Request: fold
Amino acid sequence: MRLLPNSLFGRMFALSLMATLGALVVAGFAIGGVLERFVTGNIDARLGDRLVALRSAVQADGSLDRAQLASVMARIPPNEPWRIETSTGAAGGGGDLALVDAPPVRVPPPGPRQPSPPAFDRDDAPFEGRLRDGTRVHGLSTDVATTAGEVRIVAAVPRDLIDRPVLAAMAPLAVSLAIVGLLLGGAATLQLRIGLRPVTALRLAVEAIRHGRATRVPEDLPTELAPLARELNAFAADNEAALSGARAAAANLAHALKTPVATLSLHLGDHPVAQTQLRRIDATLRHHLGRARAATANRRAATAIAPALANLARAITALHQGRVRISLDAPDGLAVAVDPQDLDELAGNLIDNAARHAASIVTIGAAAVKRHVQLTVADDGPGIVAADRHRATAPGIRLDERHDGHGFGLAIARELAELYGGTLSLDDATGGGLLVTATLPIAQ
Reply:
């Protein structure tokens, strides 16, 4: 089971949250301890003054000045216990402090003693105890040396006098720490969002390369990501070089073989066995070339369609010596996710085929339809009847023997369109002739 989320942001935020909560808990206990020591210090100062007042009722011979003691008692709240222990007895009020764990009062050895004033040691000793009724108390005790021995003086207050102020202060403190925690959590979230923004930018740059919108990722990234960006660019360059080499090899082989095979097919004439074997050879070659082309298809390419079609139109017009007029309607800025060489071969075959069969004009159009580009090539020639349109896109099939050609143009265009996830369809052109529509993926 994962202890941390499977996300860089989640992990960093979880660690930050745990560290923040731990720090706030430690701060809460530390501040609570400081508050308790502060309140306890004030209580101890008050109890120290009370010990001094009670000490004034102890005479040098260890006896108690009852009048002075009564005056002191009048100033002590009834719920705050006190006690004076001598070698001959004890006095107290506010509760029974007899359970306080105190050392026994020392009695001086017998013998003549010179009367001397009692020595008062202000090194008061704090203690925690309980009354007989279970009430928790906090107090101070001290010893006074008299001629009759040491006198123990004890003064205490209920523990609630310390706990209540501390708890009352801890409630707003807890709210304050919670607010601080929320602010720190928000700051951590903002910090992580800003800190991880270069990672998001790098991901988007790689996605742009994959979709053909870019060829490199930016390298002006933080120090930790810059080496990764350089490695990605090197990898993309190596991959592009290998892809270009494979595509060139497949294209060269295709061009080197398709003309001899078509020529053999024409010369064999009515030899059914030889034609069958030749078609088998042709199908095998086209199958493996198709697999090679599919493996090396550059689906990350982005080719502007208007300039490519314009160049093809000029070249084919010149090839047919101006016998037909080619009309082009393609918007600027429209691009297809097809390699430039494949687009030239696909569109070139369609335009050349239309020019060879047209009576006077070939119309070329391109338009974006949702996430695709529709390339249309129409001529004013005789067209193809609906029953023969499927056969027209099969390799080596020539429906019209009056014109030059080997019957591979429409087949190559269909294979290229399907290679990039598109389609090729044949239909009647407006006013007669053939309308060929190639649907190709649009480049973002």
Notes: The longest helix spans residues 8-55. The CA atoms of residues 283 and 378 lie 29 Å apart. The first strand starts at residue 82 and ends at 85.
